[in-house]
Amino acid sequence: MKPEQEQEFIRRRLEEELGDLRFLRGAEVLDRTHPRSWRAKLRALWNYELELPLIPIGASFAVLLAIFLVAQLQEETGKGETAGDMPRSGRQLVEAGGNTYWKDDYERAVEGVEIKDQS
Amino acid sequence: MKLKIKVKHLFALAVALCASFILLQLIVMPRIDVAMAKKHFEQGTSGGKNDLLRVIDASSGGDKWELIRRYMIENGSDMSLTRFDVIAGDGTFYSSTATSYPDAPRWTGEERIKYLEAYVEGGPADGYLVRAAKQLAFEYLVLSRTEDAIRALERTEQRLTGGYDNQKRELKFARAKIYADAEQFETAERLLTELSEKPNQKGTYLNDNIAKLQTRIMEQRDDTKSSVSGTIKRSDGQPMAGIGVYLRSSRDVYHSLIESEPYQTLTDAEGNFAFKGVAPGSYVIYIGLGFEQIDGWTLPVSHDEEWIDLRGGEHLTRDITLQRLIQLRSPVDQQIITGKTVTFEWEPVEGAAYYTLNGTFPIENGTVGNRIKDHIESNSIEIPLETLYSVESGYSYKKFGDKDIPDPSNLLGYADPSSRFSWNVEAYDADGKLLTRSNGYRLNLNEQTMGPLPFFYLKERTLTDADRLLLEGRMDEALVEYKAAYERDEQDEHSLRMMVKLLRINATDAKRPLDAASVTYLEKLASVDDTGNDIFPLIEYYGSVEDWSQVDHYYGMLKEARQGRVESYSQAYYGKLLLKQGRVQEGAAQLRQAQENDPSNRFIGTYLASVIYLSGTLDTAEELALQYPERSYYDQNNPDWSDLVQGLKEESQDSNDDSYFSKLKEALRVCFGGEKTEIENWTAESEYSAMKAFIKALSKVD
To answer: H or E segment at B139?
Structure first.
């Protein structure tokens, strides 16, 4: 069978078999494929499928995240430094040689004189 | 690699991301912040306090009140005047550290006022509000803002609703107390009357306190009652405002300060304080300060020196001046001494007539103090190491295996080259009153107060074999080795001294007197050691065997070594030995002198007895007993000699017996003799109860 004949044959078979069916929403389909109204245009945009390159986007996200974290970290350490000047947060007392000292001050002083002794 | 995604899905993803970010910032982050701040604060991390204040400021409503409640109100004690960093008095300094978060930083008054004010205004009206109000009132009182304190209490009372009747009464009582302290007696009494008009069955504790305060107000208004007032300032003229002042009774001073002690107050802006309506008794003033206030300063009082004896109607003034700590110059900062002498030097103190030099030996969990030299007239002194080696101290026990033996390092004292010693000085005026000292709080808070460390090492000598045995805890072997070393070389003063120490410890442990052989060594030591530190045991020994000429001989030696200033205990002991011999006149003279140098008046009973024995009357004794009451030691009930003498006086008048005094004299003679059975026999026979009471107390003086 020649191709023209074959096409003609299939078309006839289809017309025969689908003869009872009626396709009613042709207009709608046309509206979707070739939107005219603003609503239809919007819907088309809403359902538009994007193809995104994964690697560049992932990389830029990672860079942004890193910048954000570094900024946060700097803020934290900045706070810590000013707080270091507080006179006596949570320091313990120690009694040594009949005097009462802050434990950290005392330990530092003893360390200091011991280093001096060794040199 | 590509990702296919519809615009609507991309949009939904973006919305979800934004929402979670907002959620994180608004809800999760603050919670993490709060949790971190709490943790930092509780652990005392630097900046923890600021973190917590920041989250309190940032939070609102219930969260804010919860934080204030947990970290300020729960930890604070309500209107307690005992809440200070350091409580000082009677030669002691006590830092309190009790808190539910031991490492947490403490709030300053300003910080507390800010947040408590907010709580009192806006916090939920419950039991915590009452506590917040009381604590706020206290902070105001410290700043002499009496009006604000009253306002805070009143405001809280108004905010509380019907269900909090008891709490409202408590607040009203607190107000009455403040009015009473401020001497606005009428207002105080009006409030108390209002309170007692509707007595509450449940609040018996409060009802008690109401009655007590009413009595106190009555006493305060009673001009015939005693009062004690004064001003507290620093020697640079700055008044000490808002510090705690406590007039503590002799019954209370042996324990730490508690809230129920009756006489507590705060100084006003000029540092003035006053106690009115004080009941008769013996008292000593303690003060309560913040670390910032005591840092680099000291309260210059010694133990038992500052008693206030009230009998009723006196109006006494006791001003207190805090003095700067003495700075030490040398040897400091763990200097190692290798020469034959060590020169102690410190900053001179204006008005000081003499100084005393003290040291400490390290022991396992602390130090043991000792007196190196007394009555030093300049601000430096060169001391031969031999003198340091002969310094005596008490000794602590240390565990060796399963046995407790005297800490060997402590026994070696300054002769242990591995020990780190510390030293300190005290300055006295010509009347023997303490001016200031070098020991104290050195916290670098307002200025550099820490100064050099008062530590030094003595490495002139090296350990002998016997020393090593001793340090290993092998005391008996060490004793044998010391003996052998001394026999090899009679110039070996160290071995002789250690031998004597060990022999004395053995005798004390076995509760027996020194044997004759040990005494021979003791005598040899006393003859070569010119510090006099080894003489007293000889006096004790010869006293116990009643060899009076030796007692006199060694007492003479002691007096010479001490350049005429024998310690009161030794002198009184010698006085008692004189009484025992019947040399009452001489004994009384020694006891009188010892008595003058002993603020605790522990020998007053024996001295009174010698006075009664010699004079045959009770008048002088009566006066002396009033003037020198025996001070209590811990919570022991010491005899009230004044009462005892009074008893004798009444009994002698009542008895109408001319022979009363000769009987009393005979009883005293028996008691001076110190023979237990004789005293017991006399007691069994005597018919005079007051005399018996006096003799019983006298036989216990030691």
So the answer is: helix B127-142
